[in-house]
Structure formats: structure tokens, C-alpha cells
Description:
Two copies of one chain form a homodimer.
Chain A: E1 2-7, H1 11-22, H2 24-31, E2 35-41, E3 55-56, H3 60-63, E4 68-73, H4 80-90, E5 94-97, H5 100-116, E6 121-122, H6 134-140, E7 146-152, H7 155-167, H8 171-180, H9 189-192, H10 195-209, E8 219-220, H11 228-236, E9 239-250, E10 253-264, E11 276-283, E12 287-294, H12 298-313, E13 339-348, H13 351-362, E14 366-368, E15 378-382, E16 386-387, H14 388-397, E17 404-414
Parallel strand pairs in A: 1-2, 1-4, 2-3, 4-5, 5-6, 8-10, 10-17
Antiparallel strand pairs in A: 7-9, 7-11, 9-10, 11-12, 13-15, 13-16, 13-17, 14-15
Amino acid sequence: MANVAVLGYGVVGSGVVEVLKENCMSISRKAGEEIKVKKILDIRDFPESPDRELITHNPDDVFEDDSISIVVETIGGVGVAQEYTKRAFLKGKHVVTSNKELVAAHGPELMKLAKECGVNYLFEASVGGGIPIIRPLNQCLAANEIVGITGILNGTTNYILTQMKREGKDFDEALKSAQQNGYAEANPAADIEGHDACRKIAILSSIAYNEFVDSKNIYTEGITNITLADMEYAEAMNSVIKLLAVSKKVGDKIFARVSPAIISKNHPVANVEDVFNAIIVKGNAIGDAMFYGKGAGKLPTASAVVADVIDIVRHIDSNGRNVWKRKDYNNVIDINESTTRFFIRVSANNNEEAVNYIKQVFGDVEFVKVANDSYKDEIAFVTAKAKEGDLVSKKDSLKASASINDVISVIRVEEE
Amino acid sequence: MANVAVLGYGVVGSGVVEVLKENCMSISRKAGEEIKVKKILDIRDFPESPDRELITHNPDDVFEDDSISIVVETIGGVGVAQEYTKRAFLKGKHVVTSNKELVAAHGPELMKLAKECGVNYLFEASVGGGIPIIRPLNQCLAANEIVGITGILNGTTNYILTQMKREGKDFDEALKSAQQNGYAEANPAADIEGHDACRKIAILSSIAYNEFVDSKNIYTEGITNITLADMEYAEAMNSVIKLLAVSKKVGDKIFARVSPAIISKNHPVANVEDVFNAIIVKGNAIGDAMFYGKGAGKLPTASAVVADVIDIVRHIDSNGRNVWKRKDYNNVIDINESTTRFFIRVSANNNEEAVNYIKQVFGDVEFVKVANDSYKDEIAFVTAKAKEGDLVSKKDSLKASASINDVISVIRVEEE
């Protein structure tokens, strides 16, 4: 029998306890032995919970109990979670977590310590909720050199964008609806500003390219500036707007970015709606493989945590005891050095002059028109592919023309 | 160093050798040691091949060589492939295969023998080509009770249906185009009659429900009767026609079926086109997870084979040494006892009478109309959900009406 302690009895932690109980029989069969939750560490009491007998407030009950071999860390954040994770390793206990913040910030050190202590540090649930993606990257696609990753990695923002597109709600209304449905937190900054997606693409990239990709170095732009008007233009381009996280191996550096992007309706992730996530992995043998499912939620995320627990009990080291090396230089390409296409909307007081000026500045562009009179004083266009830094300079120079009042929107256009 | 022998230097076999060479560095890192192809067994000579030095015609060079620990069986079929697989087990060698025919027919016995010999029998590449699906079922979704599987499991038929829908080719033209592009064999029966998809859903179901599901017991219908007219009707229903393989746990029995199905354009697999495959797994914790990618092809399939080889070298037993038990009764539900909805097209000589007769026989139905004069002597409708056997009897009784000349098409309608 394998004894597990769960640290943090919140949404995911209680889900883990529930899944281990609910699917006890089949889990035991797959693991080869029974897996039992022996202790739940939380500062709170849960007098109404069926698991109240297991709750303890004393960390020693977990860390000093040699019969507990696996610790599930579902506390979140980098403070006490990090402290307990280290303490577990030093006591010879494996740790399974859903804590993307901790893995993205301190993955290299924690993985190194785990290796030194001869234990596993597994974090399938930290990306894509229930969607199997870290194990596939480590194992199923092990025969491939990973060339690139494209994903919708944040359910909250995808829900908001879906509400805007489908229901015609503006950003604030859509955010409110996400909060009412429990898909967004009271303070939604981490989601809507793109930081959550950024941590996730950093983790996936670190695995895929086998070197630590620091989320701090990744250009990150949220969806707070996206308007219904932008969506009308996207529709006119037979496209949709998604918050895309992308990364690519480019020589010995890595390109990574989180930003809203206009993508064709034929793009494999264009139809991924609501709180669903999807991740496309491009490998040099397999081509494109896509993984799709619920990116968050109690039971889906618990399902991923428990899969890691089962692997440990079966002595499967799904990480290959990898340790991400921190480079002593910034291995992420400067966003200004990357290439992209911009969709740009400007308000004009003289459309003909503005069009001529735009052509003069950007050369060959594709103009986009929507059949809506509200936009008749606007010019919208898509640039050719160019270095982002150059496009930004050109965009900034647009206001020099007397015919152009303002730049309203700038959104990247992503090809398949 | 781990030595591998490849049996059968065809498309997949040569792909395996290529991937192991091409990605040698990263594979060695992930496996923890170098993986080398020591011998290739084939009855043919390949004087032009860069691997010609490794080719042998003598099985003893493989089976009597104790330095070879892993055998890749890419011969196909159930004859010599089965004989060599057993011989490898008895010699203490692990076997990795892409041979769905052999696994579907003799999986239980081969897995049992492998277990007795203390070796692995892995077959990720037998379903979904390069798409990771067997390992996810065994490991990533191990915390779940699997409730059901829905998939597009055959690339050839999906290509044909896509060509029909997109290019307006009829079945014969589309098949010819598939053959010209190397997506269909000269004798395409196994694909277009649904047998290939049937073997694959049998393998997936055996894993998901942990008991052998014999492909012989699964109702299987191919796509040879699907016409462009059927597709026009599907379009009028805002739907598409796909060859779907489905299975579901129903009490202590299993429902499984391969057949063309009309599915809404909102169905997650509706947009899966060309030779791509997609598999939706429904688990009781994760909900729906979808896996998508190239279902066939040299390098994608080789990628899956090599992932299994790497797992063996890393001592990861991805199968959990499961042995599928053969039930001493038919554990697959009789198709006539399953419930479904039928789309039925009839030719009529008196539309009003025919409509009345159809209502009399089937009760509440939804009539489907297409804006095409060619079909004005037809009545098309979708039945309510009912036992398939009852629907078939009712369908057969349609011809009793003098107003109905013939039943033209019967296609199942699948809900999400």
C-alpha cells in the first residue's frame, strides 16, 4: 500500500482525494497496489467534510511520517509550497503538483534537489489541467525533436473571447460572466494579462527543448485590449481571435510569446471554445499532434495529479529525472527580433490620404474591410511578414501623417 | 547500449531505422543510453539502402543474438509476425509492434506469453499511427474509469470522405485519388470496409475496459455505399459524414460499432479532415480529452514505435504488464439491442402518401429537405432514438407501401 499526503485541501486537493476514493478499484489495479490518502495538511478545519478525520494542521504529521511516500502539493504559489516541497524531497518523499507558478519559477532547483534525493517531482497537472501533455512530451513523443508548440493554454481567457464572439458581449461583460460562472477569479489579472499562459508555455518549452525557459523572458500580452470591433474585422478575414502561446526552436535560441492572435478559421485550434484548452506539438517525425480537453476544473486537474501518483507507485519515472539547466544568458529571442504580421486599425480623417501614407510606410499590405458603417472612418490592414521591431517603428510613425488620428488596434496575425 | 533488431524493412520498419538514426542524440539522452539497430531481418535485399549492411535473411541472426534485447516487428499480418513475436519472447526479448491485425487477433495470448517471459509487448503504433493514444489510456488517464471512446481511426476512409465532400468527387473517383496519393492500397478492402478501424477500436476498447474485446464481435460497416447525395443531405442538416468507431461501457457489457455516421459540424471530430485521425476518450474525472494527428505515414508511425522502444530502454512498462482476459461469452452487445437514430432516404412515387406511411411506421420523425430538384421524388428523414433492431424492422417494412419504391440510404446519426 502506498500512502499519500495532500497539502492544501482546496479545489484541486479535494478533487485528488475524491478521485482516489471514487476510482479506488481501478487505480489499485493499474498501480499494482492500493493508494491511500493518509493525511491532509491545511490550516483550515473542514468539519463538514467526509475527509475531516484526515485533516491535520501540523506539517510534522506529514513529513515525519515515514509511511507516507508521496506528497501531493496543491497549495499553489511559491512561498510555503516551495518550502514544503523541499522538505518532502529531503525526507525522501516524491512530490506531485499542479503548481505552475512554482515549477515555472523554481523548476530547475527543485528538479535538481529531487534528483539528488532520489525522488520524483512530477507536474502533469501544471499545464493543460486534465489534458495529458507533459507525459506525452516526455515519453510519447520521445522519438522526436520538438520543433514548436502552439497552444490555447488558459481557459479563462478562452471563455471570455468565446463569450465576446458568440454572445456579442464586450470584454467587461464577458469577464463578469466568467467570474459569475467560476471561470475567473475575483482578481483576474494572472489570467487576462496572460501570465498564467506564459508560465505554462515556459514549462512546456523547457521540456520540449530540454533547457530552462524563464517565463520572465517571454513577451506576454493579455486580452484586455481586444474589442468586439476587432472581432468583426477578424470575422471579415474568415478568422478568429485567440490568446495564443507559441514557442519555437530557432537555432540555439528559443522564440516564445503569449499574445492575442488572429488565426484562420481553418487553424486546428480555431474551434477550441469556452474553457477548453488545446496544444499542438510539432515534432520532426510525427508532424503535428494535438491534445485537447478541459484545461481546468476540479476533477480534470485531479485526474492529472493522480496519474502522476500512479506513475510513481508503478515506479515509472515519467520525467526521466531531467533537470532543466538554467543558461547563464537569456536564451529567449528578443521579441523585436522575431518576425510576425501585424493587423493594424487606425482612425483617419482622410481615408484616401491615410491609405496612401500606409502604403508608403508599410509597402505591400492587405486592407481589410467590414460591412459596418460605424467603421467608415477607419482603415484596417495586415502587414507583410517582417521583423517585429521594424513593424513597431513603422506603426509608431503612422501618427506623423495628418490624415491619421490614432492607432486603434495592433494584433498579431498567426499563420498555421 | 541497447541493441534493436527490426523485422520487416517496409515503410514503417525503414522509418524506425531512420528516426533512430536521425534523432540519435536526443533519443540517447531521453533513453539514458544509446539505442542502435544491430540487425534488419527481411527476405528482400536492399542493395541501394544505406542500411544494407544490417540486412539479414537469417532469423537466427536476430533471435540467437543475446546482445539484441528489443525486437521491432513491422512485418504485419498474423503469420510469420506471430511466430517471430513468440520466438522473441521465449528468447527474453521485448517486442514493439505496429501490427494491429496481430494485436487485435492474438493480443491476449501474446500478452500472457510476454508476461510469463518477463518481457514487454508494446503496440502504441498499432492505433492512430503517430498519435499517442495507448500510452495516454494506460498512464495519463489511469486515474479515470474510461466511459467511452469515439474516433476517426482510419486515414484512408477519412481522406476519401474529405475528397467527396470538398471536391465533389464520387466514391470511386475519391478512392482512385487516395490510391494515386499512396493513401490507399491496391486492394483497399481492409480500409473502406471498416475492418482496419474495427481492429483499432477493438484494441482501444480492450485497454479502456480491461477485458479483451474481440474485433470479430464488433458490427462493422464501411463507406462504400456513401454517395454525394447523402453528403448533400448531411450538409442540409449542418452535419458531415464520417466513418466513426465508437465504444462504450454499458453495465457489464461493451457496445462497439464501426459505421459511417452523420455528425453535427459542432462535433469535435467534424473538422478532422484528410488522412488525420482523432480520438476522443471520455473519462469519469477528465471528461472529454481528444488526441489528434496523422494516423498513418512512415515517420509518424515510426515515431510511435520508437517511443515504445525508448520506454523499454528506460525500463518503463507502459502496459502495466496487463493481460487482456478473453471472456467465455460474447461481451459485445448485439448491434440490434443498441440504440441509435437512423437517417433514411426513400424514393417515392407519391410523396404525400409516402410521408404519411413513414409517420405511421416510425411515429415522430424529422424530415430533411435539400434544395436540389434531383431529389424531388425522394423523402428523407431522421428517426427518433430507438433500438436498432426495431428500426431495421420498420425500415424493412417501408417497402410494403405502394407509395415507396425503394430505400436508398440508411445512415446512423450520432450525437455528441
